[in-house]
């Protein structure tokens, strides 16, 4: 069967809501981690990002791994474009299926970045098959500088947390390095090993902590980095797991949580789905909401076990992954750490919210004088400034992380002021 024709048919079926028919094309391994319901929810979320499909482009093919053909089908909508990427075998079965942002323009450095003030080099973190590539960014000049390790949000992100034309973690890395802060950022292990999060026994600790600890230790080895001033800066789920990294590596000087979530993640996913259905009712079908409700019930149920099929669970993560998250209390983990913290939150964020997540951080850390909380009223989940209600479409245009976020992190980790500031709550 022609792989391009198969891919075009898959996109057409998904656009018509025929997800059970798409699932019948899955090869055994893909069927184990992705179901029709998973695809339905993911498709609905992406359609809300671009406002539905107005045009389907010509499939592009290229050789893939193990004799498969990689086919990319561009689709466009009123608010942007997407790339539906599939791996197809000779029998027309799908061995891989993902939806990626379609970059209309390339990334450009933010105006607050000054490349002449730093250098970058490729690194590898970890050992063996699960080692990952990353980037070490070192400020030029004399003297020992503070250092930070950047953790991306949940998902198979690269080191820059790339989404279309935007690279939020690269913005932060270049912005901080321009202000004299050394930075390590790295690809998620799940980016290079698709399906790893569906493996029994795999948890968020396995996904983040080993490479983050290796990054901290790499910074400690740099002659221009102060080994007493190395911080973990986590965005979204990266903020959630940052306390785990500090617990595993006691030399971490403190934590910066950028939109760090702390609510039960499956409940937060349901909240986000309801929000998207409300702001984009024409693009987020009711069946997708029903699928999310079934997921929540399964994750909450006593029947959830390490053997629960990943295809039946949110995001295709394993039962082990969800058991770990279900029992997780990141606020309690943070309270147990004798580490200063800077907690940053966007006021327009609908994924990690002021009312749900920030309120829990404030309540749990209310008696800590070494915690600073900063609210940026105009910023969304990626700390992109804007106006009006935030929507997925707002993430599509090329833009950059708020320069005030960069300035506040750099100031906080700087020895003169960072750890001396008393507990405070500020807003911009």
Task: Write up this protein.
With 428 residues, this protein is α/β, with parallel strands linked by helices. It has helices at residues 3-15, 19-23, 28-31, 36-50, 168-178, 189-192, 204-220, 237-248, 265-279, 286-300, 319-326, 330-336, 354-364, 403-413; strands spanning 55-56, 60-63, 69-77, 80-88, 94-101, 118-125, 132-139, 145-151, 182-186, 225-235, 254-258, 341-346, 371-376, 424-427. Helix 13 links the parallel strand 12 and strand 13 (371-376). Helix 7 (204-220) crosses helix 8 (237-248). The radius of gyration is 21 Å and the shape is globular. The chain starts with a helix and ends with a strand.
- Average predicted local confidence, pLDDT: 92
Model regions low in confidence, pLDDT < 50 over at least 5 residues: 417-423
Question: Total number of β-strand segments?
Answer: 14
The assigned structural class equals alpha/beta
Taking the sheet with the most strands, its summary is:
9 strands, mixed
Radius of gyration: 21 Å
Q: How far is the N terminus from the C terminus? A: 57 Å
What amount of the residues lies in strands?
Answer: 15-25%
Per DSSP, the total helix count is: 14
Helix and strand sequence: HHHHEEEEEEEEHEHHEHEHHHHEHEHE
What's the arrangement of strands in the largest beta sheet? 6-7-9-8-10-11-12-13-14
Principal-axes geometry comes out as globular
Helix content: 25-40%
